[in-house]
Amino acid sequence: MDSKSIAAIIVFTALTLVLNLSPIKIPAPYAPFLIYQVWEIPIVAAFVLYGLKVGVPVAIINTLALLIIFPGALPTGPFYNLAAVLSMLFGIYIVQRVASAFRSPNNEYVIEATTYLFLIMLSVIAAFVQSILWLLPGIVFSLLLLMVIGENWSKRTVITLPNHSSLSGRSEALLVTTCTVVGTLTRVVAMIVVNGFFLPFPPPIGFAFPREAVIAIIPFVGLFNATLALYTIPIGYSIARVVRPGLKSTR
């Protein structure tokens, strides 16, 4: 790892920890035990600017620091946060990789119908998980998404996105929107699975919740992770866009 990457890890980790320990905390009105914060935004910005080699280490170091400084109500709570962050970054990474795979000769990114199919399939997976918990609503949602797949499968949709250095206007909005949607979906699905599996365990792994309590909590967990990602990813991208010109001028 080069010195610039190490320096970026140090800077973004420090910023993440400062925001994590700051008083910027808003309890979710529908579930006060879930807290909206802004410390994940620098992690997304670091990931957009430098990729996996910086974004993931920042997330991991932040988790280790929280285990020592402020683990929260559950000693293993920071690992739940880490799972949420990494699953969100994974969604962003998928969009970036698919875009790069379909890069055109004029150095533009092309997202084909396969991207939308993948996005819809993620939605179906999320709906399937929810159908187990919510029964009829989840099943209806799954059927509606399958109808969307059937309608769009025969269509070949090509959307051209300029590469990151020249994104502007509609193209930038499209890229950020796609990353936000996919990142939100991967996070929601991952955290439904993580919470559904680990919460029934006794402390320090979970809260020893009975299955009925877990089923009652999961919808709030899904809503919380979705709404948090919906502001974290766009703001992270916006910060990266503002910072990127300055980084180029120092190279």
Helix-strand blueprint:
Blueprint: H1 3-20, E1 26-28, E2 31-36, H2 40-50, H3 52-69, H4 77-101, E3 108-111, H5 113-134, H6 136-152, E4 159-162, H7 169-198, H8 211-249
Antiparallel strand pairs: 1-2, 3-4
Helix pairs in contact: 1-2, 1-3, 2-3, 2-8, 3-4, 4-7, 5-6, 5-7, 7-8
Please tell me about this protein's structure.
This protein is mainly α and 251 residues long. It has a single domain (3-112, 158-249), classed as Arp2/3 complex 21 kDa subunit ARPC3. Helix content is 72%, strand content 7%. Strands 1-2 form a two-stranded antiparallel ribbon. Strands 3-4 form a two-stranded antiparallel ribbon. The radius of gyration is 19 Å and the shape is globular.
Summarize the structure.
With 251 residues, the protein is mainly alpha-helical.
Q: What are the segments in which pLDDT stays under 50 over at least 5 consecutive residues?
A: 131-139, 149-168
Radius of gyration, in Å, reads 19 Å
Give the strand order, joined by hyphens, for the main sheet: 1-2
* SS field, number of helical segments: 8
How many β-strands, per DSSP? Answer: 4
Which short descriptors sum up this protein?
251 residues, mainly alpha, Arp2/3 complex 21 kDa subunit ARPC3, two-stranded antiparallel sheet
